[in-house]
Amino acid sequence: MLQGRKILNHETFSEWPIEDLDVVSACPVCSSAEGVLQHEGVADWSFNTAPGHWHYWRCTVCETLYLNPRPTPQSIGRAYASYYTHSGQGTHSMFQSWRQRWKNERLSERFDRNIEPRLNLPRLFRSSIAKRAQRIALPFGWQELADLPPGRLMDVGCGSGATLSLALQLGWKAEGLEMDPEAVRAAQAAGLSVGDGGYERLSQSPSSFDCVHCSHVIEHVFDPRDLLRVVFAALKPGGTLILATPNALSDVHLHFGRYWRGLEAPRHLMIFSESTLSGLLMEQGFVVDSRCDQQLETIRESARIANGNKRIRSQDRAQARQLRQSLDRTPHGQDFIKLVAHKP
Ligand SMILES: [Zn+2]
User: Fold this and answer.
1) Fewer Cβ neighbours under 10 Å: the N or C end of the chain?
2) How far is the CA of 121 from the centre of ligand 1 (A)?
């Protein structure tokens, strides 16, 4: 196991007030009391903003990792005071703007659709772009959105709207919901249809959507069954759910332990195994079609946290490269669970 982590000089976490904590007396997924303490003293090493030192317990029955004690629903907002969905789409430098156009050029080639703003390079360059387009690392769900017949899409927890922007260009009638008011403002300023609020607002729209995109949301909610119930009801029959979340059984987690980027205390309340999450989906009536692409997305960030660095440094990159090679030699648990499910 990892030892000798540097203490960051900005690592001055005060404690979360005790009156704003709830004790979780049984596994929040399967209600088993057979939990064991897995990680102690985890802090907000991702954004260095939320106070507190946190413990993750592992349910020995269903393998769910759960935060215990955890912030009360009334106090959890404090953990989101400086969160990454705040950054808008509209503040690009010249370089970022060029990078975005270059990326869209490759996306246009990949999806055989016009994704703007792009560079509109002459035909001469097309074959070289086509090769690069196949190698582009897409956020999970984008290929599915390109492959499905477009209809009405809801992106729950849409941030400042990158997936919505793409979906619109792929022909979807795309809307989003977002809890973070600054991200909502950024998305609306970019002309996107984004409402302020959580998944609960979907209960006002039964059988309305052909697709619900729900990426890195379920680990944040207090009642994952309720989220899946509401999403199921909001989908039209035949509709598709695209869902991503960290994987409790990830090899990067097993390697880095409490420094794994997927923990993100205290915002991640529960982290599932793929079989447990599939079970929750099936309970609601979904038909699950698993998509594991064996990527190790959080490997550099986990190395950064374990090494006590404020930003990713060459040391972290080298460690991540080495570890990736060793993990790639064996079949392993991917870092994120990525599921596509259908409402029959
Ligand atoms: Zn359990």
Assistant:
1) N
2) 53
